[in-house]
Design a protein that fits this description.
Blueprint (H helix, E strand, L loop, with lengths): L1 H19 L3 E17 L6 E5 L1 E14 L2 E15 L3 E2 L7 E24 L2 E24 L5 E7 L15 E13 L2 E10 L6 H6 L9 E17 L1
Antiparallel strand pairs: 1-2, 1-3, 1-11, 3-4, 4-6, 5-6, 6-7, 7-8, 7-9, 9-10, 10-11
């Protein structure tokens, strides 16, 4: 994991050096994000998902290496959340429980792209490339609503030790690989795609706590749908 991260950082720096020597533009963007944690366990034989929905904002530098082919370097901040419906704690209880997950993260990405000019100052683009994610915060809030009308709240933190928790749920750093397409008209652009998690973001103790078999075949993944709209503040 560390070796792969170092290699990807080197690729990002190389792409940055190439970008400085060629025409490009600096832009800002905002958009929709749907990060999802997946588990594929040998007991379930299927992928279980916990989807979150939110937004991302960021900056990017777009450079053309040769006609049509170029790179995009950038940094995103992502915020997403998910709330479950109220459900009975058990068949023998009148209490109800609901969960709310909240996620925050930073993403350093490098995309290799190709632009097709379809009209004057109008382009279609295809892109692919790695993203290094630094997960800032992930917490799960549990709400228990009693028949008497009172509500209790409990919070679990996924990336740090709090409230006497005995383990961290997830790893801080992850790497994904994204593919996507976009559209550009003059200084304005729209980009959308999917990032596939390359490494297991869960700590193995987390699988045990969730009641999932944590043998060699258990896998976790952190994927993300995203769509961004933005504009270049300046272009060379």
């Amino acid at each position: 994991m560390k070796r792969t991260t170092i290699i990807l950082c080197a690729l990002l720096l190389t792409a940055g050096a190439m970008a400085q020597e060629n025409m490009g533009g600096f832009g800002v963007h905002v958009g929709f994000a749907a990060p999802t944690l997946y588990i594929n366990s040998p007991t379930s034989k299927k992928i279980e998902a916990n989807p979150m929905h939110g937004f991302k904002v960021g900056v990017s530098y777009d450079a053309t290496v040769i006609k049509g082919f170029g790179t995009t370097l950038g940094l995103n901040y992502t915020f997403a959340t998910h709330s479950s419906k109220w459900e009975a704690v058990s068949e023998m209880s009148t209490d109800q429980v609901s969960y709310r997950d909240t996620y925050q993260g930073l993403e350093l990405f490098c995309d290799w792209q190709y632009k097709f000019e379809i009209a004057g100052n109008t382009y279609l683009m295809l892109y692919t490339g790695p993203t290094i994610q630094c997960h800032l915060a992930l917490r799960e809030q549990e709400y228990v609503r009693h028949a008497a009308g009172t509500t209790e709240q409990r919070t679990r933190y996924g990336y740090e030790y709090r409230d006497n928790e005995s383990f961290q749920d997830y790893k801080r750093v992850n790497v994904t690989w994204g593919v996507g397409a976009g559209f550009q008209y003059k200084r304005y652009f729209l980009r959308g795609g999917y990032d596939f998690g390359l490494f297991n973001p869960f700590r193995y103790d987390t699988f045990k706590a969730m009641g999932v078999d944590s043998d060699y075949y258990t896998r976790g993944r952190f994927d993300q749908w995203q769509i961004k709209i933005g504009m270049y503040l300046w272009q060379n």
